[in-house]
Structures are given as structure tokens and as C-alpha cells.
User: Fold this.
Amino acid sequence: AEEREELSWELFGTASRELAHTIAEDGFAPDLVLSIARGGLFVAGALGYALDVKNLHVMNVEFYTGVDQRLDLPVMLPPVPNVVDLTSKKVLIADDVADTGATLKLVRDFCLDHVAEVRSAVVYEKPHSTVKCEYVWRHTDKWINFPWSVLPPVVQRSGQVLDA
Ligand code: 5GP
Assistant:
């Protein structure tokens, strides 16, 4: 089997705490955290607590359909955050991984015209990412198993609930 980078729930706790430390030590105090659903929600929640930021927003972007299976372009799904909520704010974009970087670029570009400042924090960044994030916990070129998506859903598309 090909090699994977494995992030456990426990290691995620350490990673998000260390990422928050790096951001705080850098002197960046965001007004709000903008998460990219769904993986970025975990990162944004953890960073929100660690950085004492209560203002969290969500952006829904669809790009990946499977391991290294992507659509041609990432697409924003509704509801898109109201730009009025972002205007003149210092925004921290939070996501699980910058792989090609296309998802982060889309969200960053969406912010750039409206916000005072935008920076990005990710748990992992891959070497070929077109976006270089300000805050990265680890670099890897492997496929990453995240604790929130490593197991299949407990429901099947048919609606049948699987055994635990
Ligand atoms: P990008 O737009 O940077 O290519 O990919 C961003 C999104 O694709 C991530 O937020 C994540 O949902 C998914 N993705 C990219 N690489 C990986 C990976 O190595 N493992 C997992 N589990 N998801 C990934």
C-alpha cells in the first residue's frame, strides 16, 4: 500500500495548539476565523478557542471527490458568507491542508477585495501548493488521513445505518 500521513485525534490536538502558538507569537490577532468546510471546521474551532476568537465563519467549497480525485475547479457552494461581515476585518482562513492550493486561492481571492488583512493557517501544506500559507504545522507530499474523514460515513446513501 502507498504511504500515508496519519493524523490521529490526539495528534490533531497537539497540532492545532502548536499552530495557534505560532500565530500568536507572530503577533497576528485575527478579528475572525473563516473556515473552509468541512475539514477546516475542526481547525477553525480549535484555533478559535486557542486564539480566543469567537467570530467564526464558514465557507463551503467542493473540489475533492476521493483520494486524489478532483473536479476541474473548486467551486463555492451556497451560502457564501456576506462580505459585509468581513469588511475591514483581519481574517484568518483555516483549513486542514493546502494540496494544490486551489481551494485556498479561491477563498483568499474572495476575501482580498474586502478585508483589511488575510492570512491562512493549515495543518499540512504540500510542496506543490500554489498558495504558500503564512502558518503551516507540517509539510508533506503524502496523502493525509484526517481523523474526521478516515472512516466511512455511518450511513449509506440508501439511508441504511451501519453497525458501529
Ligand atoms: P486543494 O484545493 O489545496 O488541492 O485541496 C484542498 C482540500 O482537498 C482539502 O481541504 C481537503 O479537503 C482535500 N484534500 C487535499 N489533499 C488531501 C489529503 O492529502 N488528504 C485528505 N484527506 N484530503 C485532502
The mean pLDDT is 94.
